[in-house]
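Data card: per-record layout.
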Amino acid sequence: MSTELGADPTALRSPFRVDANAGRVALITGGGTGIGRASALELAATGADVVICGRREEPLQSTAQQLERAGANCLAIPADIREPEQAEQVIDGALERFGRIDVLVNNAGGQFSAAAEEISDRGWRAVHRLAVDAAWTVTRTVAVRSMIPRRSGLIVFVGFTPLRGIPGFAHACAARAAVANLAAGLALEWSRHRIRTVCLALGSILTEGLAQYGEQTVERWRRAVPLGRLGTPEEGAGLIAFLATPAGGYITGTTIAVDGGVDAWGLAEEPPEVPDD
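The structure for this 277-residue chain is written out next.
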């Protein structure tokens, strides 16, 4: 049975089957926590073999143990993918264990809140090095070593919404906009290899990363969501698992907002005051 992602629309399986992603191998960066962890669990629950990597070994191993208890085939590799040689080691390990990579989820990222004029060059580079540079290193290497030769694959980039920008996060919004545009550009070039590239623009998702900004800030963001609540990691992960199935095989080159309506509404708050001259 072919495991190409959407190559044969006549052989579609329901995306709701427990084996909807059987035979696929997924690599998730930042796979120990948050969206990455949820994506690993959901892809495994739909039949995929899973490789997760991340800088912190403890949450990575915790996620791997949960996957293994559920009967999934999982490989956890502690690594800092900002370092090209460590990114290469992750891909080496995945290919040595499973022989292929069908799905890549570029989830790893990190940012901090700061007024635009207070972001140093070092701070700017730190955010872009992980969200853009490392994602590109992993994407290119996976494509060249597995997806292009096999003429099949799905690459997911994790972006932000609202797409118009977020006050206090000029550096991070610029980085995530870059990967959204990269997803569109790669779709134009790599569709001939039957590789699909999609950006998932996530809104306020209730994760450890979100909680670090404090209750008042998180509550303000919650009030800006038309649906009136924060999203869950599982909601993003479910869409990623769907995209990996043949039922998602005609989706590429686009950004999908998963944000409770935030991008449609805007920030739903007053703009900063403009002082009198």
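Known properties of this structure: The chain has a mean pLDDT of 91. Residues 19-261 form a domain with the Rossmann fold fold (CATH 3.40.50.720).

See the next section for split statistics.
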